[in-house]
Design a protein that fits this description.
The chain is of the alpha+beta class. The protein contains ten helices and ten strands. The strands form two sheets. A six-stranded mixed sheet has the order 5-6-2-1-8-9, sandwiched between helices. A four-stranded antiparallel sheet has the order 4-3-7-10, with no helix packed on it. It is elongated. 41% of the residues are buried.
Length: 344
């Protein structure tokens, strides 16, 4: 009884930690990346800037602030907008600033990221001519400027590495994804069983990432985010049923496959919200997905063996860990679901 109480108390601490981070989870898919897209035509230059709404203060006018923050030069001269248009996408929480300047340009320079005061935020700069990407760069506090020329392997590799790192950070920063994976692993199992679960989840979210990358299917975030929270409740509920009656068939791979499709759209939405152009979205998603796989693998390698060791050394702890852990996760998932449906 004492051991069961100890396990329940540890699970309760997990619940408190989750609850304290609940608000953070609603912005778990914010990659802290803004974007600048420059389209070069024969007689004009079009510029599109995409930034997250929460990057601006409540009293700020995004149109004026972006105009002030944009440190863009064409052929060595500051960009001067002839026409400016601002679009607010409330569903995805982003602001889109669009402007044009008459006259052709051959060289594009960016002297600073949009938010240089924020050390962890980056700005992706993409230059296109005739619908072809002719320049890619990533500017941030460490690399504050860039000059666009022909694409080089070094430039592309640098940007790809950034999104690979963002994918890893997204898994550990997105607390809902972490809880979903932990819920799938709580019942334990053989190496073969866990491999099926991880493979199913990887296959599923890779499919939806590809669909989003090609624009075939991009469901709104207001539908995807509640479903992600609901997936946590569903898996945790299955775990609770398993503590009462041992199931004949392990349904976790099927849940990982089904809900993995939803999580994949969540991954893709996080990346597409940065305003990356269609021409550059493919490699960005590929790199980001690779980072997600690395983060997912690290989580499984850390959690699964630790849980197996605890259960092996303290067999009586297995049932309390699964029950209290799943109950805690289900409560947090239900809270997130209600928050994303009724409070957003």
């Amino acid at each position: 009884m004492k051991q069961k109480w100890q396990s329940g108390f540890l699970a309760w601490l997990l619940l408190m930690f989750c609850a304290l981070n609940a608000q953070k989870s609603t912005q778990a898919h914010d990659l802290k990346v803004s974007s600048i897209k420059v389209i070069l035509d024969k007689a004009s230059v079009s510029v599109s800037v995409v930034a997250h709404s929460h990057s601006f203060s409540a009293s700020a006018a995004p149109a004026a602030e972006i105009s002030h923050r944009l440190k863009l030069r064409l052929n060595g001269k500051p960009f001067r907008a002839d026409k400016v248009q601002i679009v607010r996408d409330g569903a995805n929480g982003i602001v889109i600033w669009q402007a044009t300047q008459n006259g052709a340009a051959a060289r594009v320079e960016v002297d600073a990221p949009l938010f240089p005061e924020k050390e962890n935020e980056s700005t992706v700069v993409t230059v296109l001519r005739n619908r072809q990407v002719v320049g890619e760069a990533l500017v941030n506090a460490k690399t504050p400027s860039a000059q666009m020329g022909d694409v080089t392997q070094q430039t592309v590799s640098k940007v790809c590495f950034q999104f690979l790192r963002e994918g890893v950070a997204h898994i550990f920063g997105g607390f809902d994804h972490v809880l979903f994976l932990i819920s799938l692993l709580l019942l334990g199992g053989t190496g073969k069983q866990l491999l099926k679960i991880v493979t199913a989840f990887t296959l599923a979210h890779s499919i939806t990432l590809s669909l989003a990358a090609t624009g075939i299917l991009v469901p709104p975030a207001r539908f995807i985010e509640p479903l992600i929270a609901l997936s946590i409740v569903a898996v945790a509920g299955l775990n609770l049923l398993a503590t009462e009656n041992k199931p004949r068939l392990d349904a976790r791979p099927w849940l990982a496959l089904g809900f993995g499709l939803v999580h994949g759209f969540g991954f893709a939405a996080a990346l597409s919200e940065t305003g990356l152009p269609r021409e550059a979205l493919g490699w960005a998603l590929l790199s980001f997905n690779g980072g997600v796989e690395i983060g997912q693998g690290v989580l499984v390698v850390l959690f699964a063996p630790a849980l197996a060791w605890i259960v092996k050394s303290r067999p009586r702890w297995r049932e309390p860990i699964v029950f209290y852990g799943s109950a805690s996760v289900a409560v947090v998932g239900a809270f997130w679901f209600a928050e994303r449906v009724f409070m957003v």
